[in-house]
Amino acid sequence: MTMIDIAKAAGVSLTTVGRVVRKKGYVSREKREAVEEVIRKTGYVPNLVAQGLKSSRTGLIGHLTVLNPNMLYEQISKSINRAAAQRGYQVLTYAADLEDQNTADLLDELIGRRVDGIAITSNPQLDQTLLQKILVQNIPLVMVERTLNVKRTDRIVVSDYRGAYTAVQHIIRHGHRKIAFIGKFADQDVENRRLNGYKAALRAAGIAEDKTLIELRRNYGVEEGSAAAERLLELPSRPTAVFMTSDLFACGFLQACYRRKIRVPDDISLVGYDNTLSMMLSPPITSVSLGLDDLGSDVMELLLSRMNDGLIEGRQVANSTSLIDRGSVRLL
Amino acid sequence: MTMIDIAKAAGVSLTTVGRVVRKKGYVSREKREAVEEVIRKTGYVPNLVAQGLKSSRTGLIGHLTVLNPNMLYEQISKSINRAAAQRGYQVLTYAADLEDQNTADLLDELIGRRVDGIAITSNPQLDQTLLQKILVQNIPLVMVERTLNVKRTDRIVVSDYRGAYTAVQHIIRHGHRKIAFIGKFADQDVENRRLNGYKAALRAAGIAEDKTLIELRRNYGVEEGSAAAERLLELPSRPTAVFMTSDLFACGFLQACYRRKIRVPDDISLVGYDNTLSMMLSPPITSVSLGLDDLGSDVMELLLSRMNDGLIEGRQVANSTSLIDRGSVRLL
DNA sequence: CTGAAAGCGCTAACAC
DNA sequence: GTGTTAGCGCTTTCAG
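Structure tokens for the assembled complex are given below, as produced in the milestone run.
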């Protein structure tokens, strides 16, 4: 079934069928109805591949991401998929989790498929050279969270510093002074920003930094959170509150508490980060939301505007974090 | 940059470039190297859209799914994406969560994009008429979990009955007799199979069914689990164990327990389902794993074999469930 | 308002 | 071994 078949069956030309299918251009009512009738009867579906070749517009957005252990990946994907669908685009998600698929090949496939735009979320393996290839092809590009400063490329950054700061401030306002920090080793800026937010909040409150209260782990993960908790809970003078840079840590921390029959927030106060799992835990934990609901829309809007004008200078959008209070911090 | 440009630059014909790009057919070493050189220099990337049009093979798999509240959706997507990538395919995921996007339109887009195969996972809005369209186009189709018996279409079913049966049997073997059930109203067969598994296990152990111990909820969800727990925990003669058909219910149940300072498994024993969140809870909960790791491979293998021979009769593969014991059932 | 014609970039016979 | 040629199914000027 092709447009030509439809044209023949309806007794019109190929062009007319095209106009009806795309609802564009003038077609007399009779002819239109004739064509529509045939289309309905035959169950004809336009070939988007051919359309894409001819119009060099595929309606596809490439999303390059990395499968991280926390649930962030799914949230981000969901948000982008949804926003894209609402705007008539479909997302092709490439997860660079395997060693055998290197980022360069992935990008080549994206380019080969002639996607109309590319979103890269927190991929650590990026460098200017790789991105250059995309830019040369003039494909709109937006980078999320882990961003490089590249010409004519938009960035969406998460205000991690503020997020951490606000969380710790919240704890301090509840009267806590011995506040522990569980985070990940700073491979990337993200982790540093969170740690800095924590330190700044302490400083602002005139609380001296206590190195024994800072627990840095190799990875995000439940086990890691549990292990960190084991150490912190053994401390001669135990912290009264803990700020963790991932809800996964909070999961693990709570498991350790459960084993020791330590109650939250009665015996210790906790604040998580990501707002992914915190609402599901026992008890639900106050957590920093990264405001990812709008992320997809932001991504798509940046991409779409750049499709219209590829020459605009690189813009930067900050996704603002907010604290979701679930009462897991006790008033001292 | 097209193949013709490369051909000119390398002083060979279009065909020769094609042979080099596709690594197929005879090309003398000199010419090949010349072509490869030019490709490298220019950063040429073959146009997969044109390839797709010409070869009517897009390397795309369409995945039609529905965004459910439990984490199953992500697990399934991940599994399929990964299996597809390993076989050189890319997945286009369509989530029919919005009312405005009806399944028929989604299917049309999949057909329009000329995907090489379609996987439909637990979509409740399916009917023969819709599927007919896919079959007419001769696109390999595999349905997961919620399946219809359609000619020349493969099915992957989850052995929910066995899963539930095994879970309840596990509880019974630990000496429990008052075992509650939290499930979802039976919109679909899935829910019934789980309830039936529960009932059958009780029957096999000679335990009379107690209607007050069966709690059916409108939806899967944390809140729902919590509400169910509130009722069950108020019962004059409280159950000693609870089997729930979703880890989300278990989350909610644990929150209710936490509020009442009821400990698991000391005061009550719990078993979840899905094995999605159970490992993250406090305490970790014994749960039924749906064995989704292999799901993607199964899907792809069924699809690939049908691409080779579209006439094979519909096959059925059963994904076997297994109980992951985390000690949340106490020995009475 | 409608149609004829020229490709989009690539593949696959088929000839040389 | 290598090149010529004819499309895949559609969009888009440009005439009528």
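Chain A has twelve helices and twelve strands. Residues 31 and 117 of chain A are 37 Å apart (CA to CA). Further analysis is deferred to the final report.
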